[in-house]
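Re: the 192-residue chain
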Amino acid sequence: MPATPEEVNKILGWLGAGAEAGAEGNFGELCRAVTVRKNKEHALRFAAVPPAERVVFLPQCLRRIGRCQAIETARGYECRECMQCPAGTITREAARLGYKGVYMLKGGRAVAQVLCEARPTAVVGVACSYEGALGILECERKGVAVQFVPLTRDGCAETDVDLDEVLSVLEFVPLARATGGGGAAEKTPGRD
C-alpha cells in the first residue's frame, strides 16, 4: 500500500527534510534512515522495559508457504515453532525470555489493534523499512518504546531477517538487571 501524504510528511519531518526530499529521493532509503534514527532515540527507554512488558511484531511474509504450520487467526498467524522459518526461533526465544507475546501480523495496520489490546510498554518490530517506519509512528502515538530490525530480503512472501540481530535485540535487557541497578546496559542492540 502506498504511503499517504501525511505518512510521507511525518517520515520526512523525522529526518528534518522537506517534501522535496520525498519527491527527489528514494523513499525506501528515507524509511531506512528513519528507522535507524528512531532505534537510537528509543534505545534507553526500550532497555528499561522488562521482557514481560514487551511484545514482538513479525510480518507474515517470513513464513515458508507450504511448510509453515502456523495457525491463521483474525489478524495474522500463531507460530507453532515448526522451525521452517526465522519466526520459530524468534518465538521460542521470546517465550524463553518471558516476552508478553509474539504477533505474526498480516499487515502493518494490525499494529494499532495489537497495541490497544496487548498494551505493551515496548515492541520489537521486524518488517520492511516502510512498514517499520509506519510501525514506529504508531508506537510513538501510543507512547510505546520500539526497536526495529529490517528484513534482509523484502517481498510479499518468504522474506528473511538477520536472526542474530533479532535475537540480540530480544536480549536487550532492562538497565537495572544489566548493571545491578544503575548505569548503561551491558547488552545493546547490534546496530550503530
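The domain at 42-170 is CATH 3.40.50 (Rossmann fold).
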